[in-house]
Amino acid sequence: MNTRDARRVLEAALICSHKPMAVREMRALFEGAVGADTIRALLDDLVRDCMDRGVELVCVASGWRYQSRAEIRVFMDRLHPEKPPKYSRATMETLAIIAYRQPVTRGDIEDIRGVTVSTQMVRQLEERGWIDVIGHREAPGRPALYATTRQFLDDLGLKSLEQLPALEALQGRAPEEMERQARPPLPQQASLLDEMLDPGVPMAPGRQESGDEAAGSEPLVAMPNPDLNPD
């Protein structure tokens, strides 16, 4: 197969895929006849082809995917006016702690937040695919250690945790400056980063969250819903 045909196959596979594609999956398209270096070169060509288009080819944690550009998103939203899922401010605080301090136990999160972390809150993040148990701490009771997942990075449009904005660099800055520093690909992702980095008024230490708070009676935050979401 010549390079032109291989590029067409690769482009079609990426457009039709419902989730990001890793290079090893792309090699399977050609039964190993096209090497990884050639595929990466073809991906670079496809990225350049999108320079003046409304879509872009990006690499996230799970692989490569096409998505609409940030400035096009407002028009795309008119096709799907339904609102994205929402989570409570307390849930966002918990997610931020896990993202920046991982791996952590529920006890670690409670020490930082000063309140008891509800089981429902942790389950919400697990069901969304943003956190997972990666082991257990060698301590009495062997508490579970939580960390973020590839899905979390994919939904933020990031390739690795190193691309998360540095807390020290962003604390105290205006929201628009935080968004510019983070450079997320979609507006909803910028909002998620804002909420993670600026969780609002801290709760009083030792206060038990009520069921209503855990269920979302606190200010709600729209979560990212990028085009071609791996879900």
Automatic annotation (TrEMBL):
InterPro entries: ScpB_csome_segregation, WH-like_DNA-bd_sf, WH_DNA-bd_sf. One of its GO terms (biological process) is chromosome separation. It holds the Pfam family SMC_ScpB. Residues 174-231 are annotated as: Disordered. Keywords: Cell cycle, Cell division, Chromosome partition, Cytoplasm. The keyword Cell division applies. This is Condensin subunit ScpB. It comes from Sphaerotilus hippei.
